[in-house]
Design goal:
- There is one protein chain.
- The model has no long low-confidence stretch (mean pLDDT 87).
- The chain is elongated, with a radius of gyration of 19 Å.
- The strands form three sheets. The protein has a four-stranded antiparallel beta sheet with strand order 4-5-6-7, covered by helices on one side. A three-stranded parallel beta sheet has the order 1-2-3, with helices on both faces.
- The longest helix has 14 residues.
- It is 42% helix and 19% strand.
- The chain starts with a helix and ends with a strand.
- It folds into two domains: 103 residues, Rossmann fold; 90 residues, Arc Repressor Mutant, subunit A (Orthogonal Bundle), CATH 1.10.10.10.
- By secondary structure, the chain is of the alpha+beta class.
């Protein structure tokens, strides 16, 4: 299920059956993100994370597990995990957490680019075809989110959680800021509406 869900959202995914194979795979290539089930066969997820950290690998680790007690969560973080997702979970929450972990590990000084658009998230400055675009803090954050998720749909709930830190806010606030961005970015349009779901920048 994880492989299908992440693959359908544009991620390149490699899956393994147990902890020992996971460690062997990491010797060959290090992914951008590691998703570990705590209760894997053989070497469990906690032990895999501990070995990953002992090797000095700084890739983000997301645990998925049915264990939701506080001591279990603490054990996950102490083993080197960056986030902890309890089963059963919604697909949207999985994708939101994966996206957040990947953005968190992106260098702050890295410029984001798409076609003729450039964004410097740190300076909140954008240019399109050389034309400078002045952005507010939330406009810049929303554009950064769309660019980081280019090719994947950003739901309104995801945007509210990431930019406004509040899923109880009205979804219309996202639509309003998308309209601001579209007006500032100009033609041809870069931001598409995915009816009933959210918005995306196509690859």
């Amino acid at each position: 299920m994880l492989e299908r869900t992440l693959g359908a959202s544009g991620y390149e995914v490699r899956t393994v059956a147990d902890g020992g194979v996971a460690l062997a795979a990491l010797e060959q290539s290090v992914p951008d993100l590691l998703v570990l089930d705590v209760a894997m066969a053989g070497i469990d997820g906690l032990a895999v994370a501990q070995r990953v950290r002992s090797k000095g690998l700084a890739l983000p680790i997301l645990f998925v597990t049915a264990r939701d007690a506080v001591p279990d969560r603490v054990a996950g973080f102490q083993a080197g995990g960056d986030d902890y997702l309890v089963k059963p979970f919604a697909t949207e929450e999985l994708l939101a957490r994966v996206g957040a972990l990947l953005r968190r590990t992106r260098p702050l000084d890295r410029e984001l680019a798409h076609r003729d658009l450039r964004l410097d998230p740190g300076a909140r400055r954008a240019t399109r075809s050389g034309r400078e675009i002045v952005l507010t803090a939330r406009e810049s954050a929303l554009l950064e989110l769309l660019l980081c998720e280019a090719g994947r749909t950003v739901t309104r709930d995801h945007a509210l959680r990431e930019i406004w830190g509040d899923t109880n806010a009205l979804a219309s606030v996202v639509d309003r800021y998308i309209a601001y961005l579209r007006r500032k970015l100009g033609d041809p349009p870069l931001i598409e509406t995915v009816r009933g779901v959210g918005f995306r920048i196509s690859r």
